[in-house]
């Protein structure tokens, strides 16, 4: 999934594609109208870009974390090479990668 705001900021071309969106317990949560092709890369040396397609939605979820976390938590994990260095600050989620990319992301 990718937000329409992110698609607009990146200038991605939206392909017409109607997709019903289904949540927990098979409850309908709307219809997405559009899909984009994306190339995602980490910016780290020797990382391979990953190609995927994402359904365009207005929003993915509420801001996460739901409130900014303390500096002590940030310092506890600051030695890790995380994709989001501001993981402790409340912010918008613009892209949700699917399970089909999991093995490619976590290669040894």
TrEMBL record:
Q: Which organism is it from?
A: Lygus hesperus (Western plant bug)
Q: What is this protein called?
A: 3,4-dihydroxy-2-butanone 4-phosphate synthase
Gene name linked to the record: ribB_2
Q: State the source organism's domain of life.
A: Eukaryota
